[in-house]
Every structure is written in structure tokens, then in C-alpha cells.
Amino acid sequence: MKIQVVESVLKADAAAAANNRARFTAAGVLAVNVMSAPGSGKTTLLQQTLTALGPARCAVLVGDLQTTRDAERLGITGSAVTQINTGRGCHLSPAQVAAGLDTLTLAGIEYVFIENVGNMVCPAAHDLGEQRRAVLLSVPEGDDKVAKYPTLFQPADVILLTKTDLLSVVEFNRAIVLADLARINTHAPLIECAPKSGAGLAPWLTWLRAARAAI
Amino acid sequence: MKIQVVESVLKADAAAAANNRARFTAAGVLAVNVMSAPGSGKTTLLQQTLTALGPARCAVLVGDLQTTRDAERLGITGSAVTQINTGRGCHLSPAQVAAGLDTLTLAGIEYVFIENVGNMVCPAAHDLGEQRRAVLLSVPEGDDKVAKYPTLFQPADVILLTKTDLLSVVEFNRAIVLADLARINTHAPLIECAPKSGAGLAPWLTWLRAARAAI
What we know:
Radius of gyration of chain A: 17 Å
Largest interface: A-B, 38 and 38 residues
Mean pLDDT of chain A: 94
Shape of chain A: globular
Largest sheet of chain A: 7 strands, parallel
Number of strands of chain A: 7
Oligomer: homodimer
């Protein structure tokens, strides 16, 4: 008798992720897995991003344990948005993303944003089939987070330092973040922004357009 | 052939948690499992708490994926502090807490604070053998977090709303938090505080002393 429960789950996850990636690429879609701690500004950043890129060109799959609050906020832009409730699940799985993709029509869509569950640990360990990973770090979370959560920041393709409007009211030493990134991730650009005000949106849009052109 | 891998792990965890709890109670120690998102102010709150309660009466077990930064910050108070590095682990386990306890001498200790990995999902699912759970929510994380992370807030014995000094500079509607708590947790007091300044520390200390008297 052969017991291979974990192996088969891992293989199923890898196959589901590869299948998602093939669907994105075939449709000419850039899929971005957006990850961060809870409350770093993922939804606010995406609201601004959908509006700036053109809502009809974008779709969002948004993961939360419960509620449809983020989907409601994003749906106001006019983009197609599907909420994935994970119950007690601490991250999105590639199978959940596949089920979410089944609810979307990709014709005419150029960007799919996958807003992961707010969590700096578990989502980083799960390939969803995205072509790029965006990681947010908000100023009030503190300047020690890159060193404390390297598994999230190391594979990031772009890092957004959000809520920079709070730099003047909280203690935050940007040099610590830069020094930690110099050790673990030297390929991802760091974009400073304040999504509430729209500050810093332009370099993020430039990055997205270049990433889509490269797929 | 009987396969009971998951069951045996769960049993081992439950036994380890029960054993930790027995050790705490036998020593007259109140153990508090402190949980929140990354950057909510757990370490700053504990720095103030150790100093106020008397560093020699307190010990801390602090969980992080990597680094000893939190242990270094807490050790300055003079309390006994042990860092538990979880590697890729998204929460502390009762076995890790037992190993941490082995590094401490509980004689003369009245309070053991277990600072969990910054994560609003996974730590909530794991009993470490604590007698009380304290959950922090920081103002800049947003007023929607109680509804979005009910598995964390529902079993909390006390909830601390931290960084209230930022209420004047970020959008945060306290009424939403109170309405969500009224649905899922009506037994835990909500203590508003700003650990950086020490505001709100007194009711937290009162709660801790009453909780210790009740074990």
C-alpha cells in the first residue's frame, strides 16, 4: 500500500497553477498576485488601478475569509470582480483561482488582479498561476517587516511601500527597509505610494504595462 | 492498516497545550497569547506592560519567522525573553511553546506573554495552552477587520484597539468595529490605547491583574 497524500496534493496544486497560467497567457492577460498584511491598502490600490487602466480591461479575484466588502468596493469601478471566501483558509489556492476564473469572461481583459488573503506568511508559499507577484508594505506596519517576513518579500517582482502620507506621523526608517531588501531581493523595484491620494500611482501603472508587454 | 496521521497530530497538539496550561497554572502564572496582524503594536504594548507590571514578574516567548529583533526590544526591559524562530511556520505551536518554557524559570514569574507570529488567520486555530487570548487591532489597518477575520476576534478574551493616536489622520469608523463585535464577540472588553505614548495602559493592566486573580 502506497501512501502519497501530501505528494498528490502538491502535484494537484502545481498542475492547477500551471493550468491557470496557461489560461492567462493564452488570453493575453497579465495576472498579478497581490499580497500583504491585512490593511496595507491592497483594495484601495486596486480601486485606483482599475480606474486608471480602464475598468473594462481589468478583472479582479479577491480572497477573504468572510464578507464581500472588498468585492463591493472594487465592483464600483465597473470592473468584473469575483469574491472568493476561504472560510478558515489562510491563503488562496490555485483551485480556488481556477473556480474564480470560470466566473470571468477573459475576452477583452488585459489584467487580472488576484487580491490574496491579508497574511504575510501563507500566501507566499502558494503559486496560483500568476505571472507576477506584487507585495505591499504599509508605513504604519513598521520598518522591520522585510527582515521578519523574507519568504514574502524574496520572491516579489515589485514592492509597493504604501501609506507614505503617514511617514511624517509614525516612526519609520526607510533605510532599514532598503538595507533588508539589499540582502534578500535586489530585482524588484520599490514604489512609494499613497493609494488614498493617488500619489505614486504612475510608476506602478508603468510597471504593470511593461510587465504585460513582457508576457 | 490504520492511517491516522492528522488525528495523531491533533491529539499531540492538544496534549502539549494541556501540559503547558498545567505548568502555567501550577506555577501561579497567567499566560496570555497575544495575536494580531504584523505591525499592530504587540511588541511596543508588551514593552510598556513588562515595565509597568515589573520586569522580574514577567517573561515573554516571542514568535517570528526570522530575526531576534522583537526579543532584543523586549529584553531591554529586564524581563526574561525567549525568541522562537518558526522558519516558514505561520503560527506558534504548543510544542514550540513547551520548548520555550523549558528555557525559563517560572519561580517568581506571574505573567508569561506569548507574542504570536503576526498573522490574523493561522494563530487563531492553535491552542498553545494559554489561559487568555489578547487580540490587537491597529487603527491604520482599517475598521473592516473584525468582520473579515472572525476566527481571530470571536475567541478573544480582550481586544485592544491600538494606535488610537492615528484616529485623527486616517479614516476609521469605530462604530463599524463595535457593530461587528456585537455580532461575534460580546464578552471581550475593548480597550483603546496608543502603546507608543502609554495611553490606555491602565485598563489593560487592570484587566491582566483581574485575569491572573481568576486563574
